[in-house]
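Extended Data, panel c. Modelled sequence:
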Amino acid sequence: MLTISDMVRVLNARVLRGGDKLDTPVYTACCSDLMSDVLAFVDEKTVLITGLTNPHVIRTSEMLDLKCLVFVRGKVPTDDILDSAEEQGLVVITTKLTAFSACGLLYDLGLRGVPVPNAWDTEDK
């Protein structure tokens, strides 16, 4: 079982909010800067990996009941965004890694992507 604490360790991340919830298990992740894609494809509690630090990330997280936000490239949201995340009970971490590197390390650790139905279906309909 993978926990947020494992993610913090492998990403050499800094915990910005939710340090009391690091033992929360995680099973899937989504990486995107387009919140419309996150809303379209994520339908389970998951981890969101993003470089976007605006309020849309918090609103999307709330709508999907996400567990953890990972901000990449050393990005740190403003205090009002972090406070909103804390009110939702989100764990928020930041890493200096790129999204690509962070995803690769988390995949190696056992975290998988959110299942996308018919992702490899190439038939024209």
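The mean pLDDT is 89. This feature is highlighted in the accompanying rendering.
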